[in-house]
UniProtKB/TrEMBL annotation:
SUPFAM superfamilies: NAD(P)-binding Rossmann-fold domains (SSF51735). InterPro entries: NAD(P)-bd_dom_sf, Sc_DH/Rdtase_CS, SDR_fam. This is Short-chain dehydrogenase. GO terms for biological process: fatty acid biosynthetic process. It comes from Thiocapsa imhoffii. Belongs to the short-chain dehydrogenases/reductases (SDR) family.
Length: 257
């Protein structure tokens, strides 16, 4: 039996590393045509070449998704190459671990523009394409810290809280276009971001990964486990799911013990 993703086109922002790269591999494995948009040209080229070497259809577009011009060009490149966009996974993100006093205006803008404005921009250009094609699916990467606050992470929490409500607002607007819009709220996941957070907090490299033992499942998540939730939301199993924020965090937000 063929996969329901065979020949579907998915555009993944931040597809060069971590959760985005894991999703790219999963969707490619399921037969989808995968477009990666990332600011990291080396990582994007490497992964698209890996996928093509495995007889998958892949495209890398170098883009800074905090810039409207890059988002528009990325969407045009994907349409020129694959002709449509069925699934948009807005996943690119950065973090800055600091309180409101220590966060500079430049850092605030960088985090909000990369994590939140990028979702607005990509959707602005992709929604009309999906609507004229009879529908589509959008999945945004928020965070557990889009639902509850976290210490010393004001710009990150503000950006991810924004992603959660942007998701819900778009779900209201575009259900009529047969476009489902959902977000995932991962907890700590083993990617470069956790290492970068540890660096910013003056912790050792693995400290945040080891803190996973305090979660109900006793560990941090793996990128592939988060990618699996994206596949679920993109699939027909989730055909009646829109406007939701799916927590994927090993029980981290389940309550206090
Ligand atoms: N790792 C975690 O613990 C965790 C937890 C909750 C949410 N998230 C979210 O998951 C998403 C993916 O993060 P990750 O953990 O895989 O981190 P990562 O650093 O491994 O991957 C992030 C990707 O985004 C790309 N990127 C950054 N800025 C960009 C820009 N301006 N334009 C285009 N691409 C850009 C990077 O090059 C990289 O490929 C992020 O939105 C992050 O906030 C991660």
């Amino acid at each position: 039996m063929g996969s329901e993703f065979a020949e579907k086109v998915i555009l993944i922002t931040g597809g060069g590393h971590g959760i985005g790269a894991a999703a790219a591999r999963c969707f490619a494995e399921a037969g989808a045509r995968v477009a990666l948009a990332d600011v990291d040209r080396q990582a994007g080229d490497r992964l698209s070449e890996e996928l093509i070497a495995h007889h998958r259809q892949a495209l890398f577009v170098e883009a800074d998704v905090s810039e409207g011009r890059d988002c528009k060009l990325a969407v045009e490149r994907v349409l020129d190459t694959f002709g449509c966009i069925d699934i948009l996974f807005n996943n690119a993100g950065i973090t800055r671990r600091a309180n409101v006093v220590e966060t500079t205006e430049k850092e605030w803008d960088a985090v909000i523009d990369t994590n939140l404005k990028s979702v607005f921009l990509m959707c602005k250009y992709v929604v009309p394409v999906m609507a004229s094609n009879g529908g589509g699916v959008i999945i945004n990467t928020a965070s557990g810290w889009g639902l509850v606050g976290g210490k010393e992470a004001v710009s990150y929490c503000a950006s991810k809280g924004g992603v959660v409500l942007l998701t819900k607002a778009m779900a209201l607007d575009h259900g009529k276009d047969n476009i489902r819009v959902n977000c995932i709220c991962p907890g700590d996941t083993r990617t470069r971001m956790l290492v970068e957070e540890a660096r910013q907090l003056d912790l050792s490299t693995d400290d945040l990964i080891e803190e996973g033992i305090y979660r109900p499942l006793g560990r941090v998540g793996e990128p592939g486990e988060v990618a699996a939730s994206v596949m679920y939301l993109a699939s027909s199993l989730a055909s009646f799911v829109t406007g939701t924020a799916l927590v994927v965090d090993g029980g981290g937000l389940a309550g206090s013990a």
